[in-house]
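Is this the right way to post structure tokens for a design question? Let me know if I should format differently. Anyway, here goes:
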């Protein structure tokens, strides 16, 4: 395995572990409040909202992983960070709109769950992104 491949694998693994633990924490802490907020549908909305936030964060991680894996990157770090932010936000908004309008999930608990998941993962992903962009920016 080359150095670039090893770096991408390490970066992807660290992102996946951090994001999965964060989403798990959101679900664990939110289970009872969401059940109270929306009943059985509230619990489903929490799971769907957390999944939407996770998928949005995954989209945001892709430009960083591409940057980490490239032996010589032609994109400056701020451009990679901007692409990451744009993809993350766009994917999350589109998925949330589809879920809110195209499913029978309780809309209010769903959108609150997306927001909470987005904010929690934003902190996790920003720390992760800064770490890996700084480490890879000195190629």
């Amino acid at each position: 395995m080359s150095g670039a491949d090893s770096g991408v694998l390490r970066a992807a693994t660290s992102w996946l572990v951090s994001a999965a633990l964060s989403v798990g924490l959101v679900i664990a802490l939110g289970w009872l409040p969401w059940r109270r907020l929306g009943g059985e549908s509230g619990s489903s909305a929490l799971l769907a909202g957390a999944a939407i936030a996770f998928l949005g964060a995954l989209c945001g991680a892709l430009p960083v992983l591409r940057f980490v894996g490239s032996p010589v990157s032609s994109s400056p770090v701020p451009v990679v960070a901007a692409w990451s932010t744009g993809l993350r936000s766009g994917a999350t908004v589109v998925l949330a709109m589809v879920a809110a309008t195209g499913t029978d999930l309780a809309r209010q608990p769903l959108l609150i769950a997306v927001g909470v998941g987005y904010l929690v993962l934003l902190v996790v992903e920003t720390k992760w992104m800064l770490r890996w962009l700084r480490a890879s920016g000195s190629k």
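Format looks fine. Someone answered above. Worth noting: Helices lie at 3-69, 77-102, 107-136. The two ends are 18 Å apart (CA to CA).
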